[in-house]
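call fold(seq) -> tokens
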Amino acid sequence: MADTQPTAASVPGVQSPAGGVVEPTAAGAPAVRLSGLAMKRRGPVAVWLGLTLITLGIYQLVWYFKIHKELQEFDRRRPLSPGGSVLVLIFLGWTVIAPLISFNNTGKAIANAQRAAGLPVTCSPAASMWLAFVFGLNTWYMQRQLNLVVEAYPGAAPGTEVSLAA
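ret:
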């Protein structure tokens, strides 16, 4: 009897676990329309230089947490750990290798977000990693790439639901 009960994946207009909405198709079978939450546009130079210098580096950690949280909410199919990413920078920053791996993984997450928004993938995980050695330009680069995703949804306020292309 329990197997005859409707689930979220079979009821039209109901939120699915993957973060989309179930819509009926022409054939009658339910199809999931993927959606996520819009991200906030930030100034790349302000993120890279301005706010980081004013706050003595604290803003970069806050920014890193925020972009991971926004990436997680944008595409719920790809789990991210915002807190874990920041903890790597705080506690393992002295190893140099761990932050580089974290920056590389962030570049991959940004590339996946570009793909989910239906954009051509222009974010290079390697550039996200190696630009850390060039005056910390990796934050500027990553924010520039994130802004491309934000601009794919003109007029969408941060935190509002947007549909994903793939």
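The CA atoms of residues 50 and 56 lie 10 Å apart.
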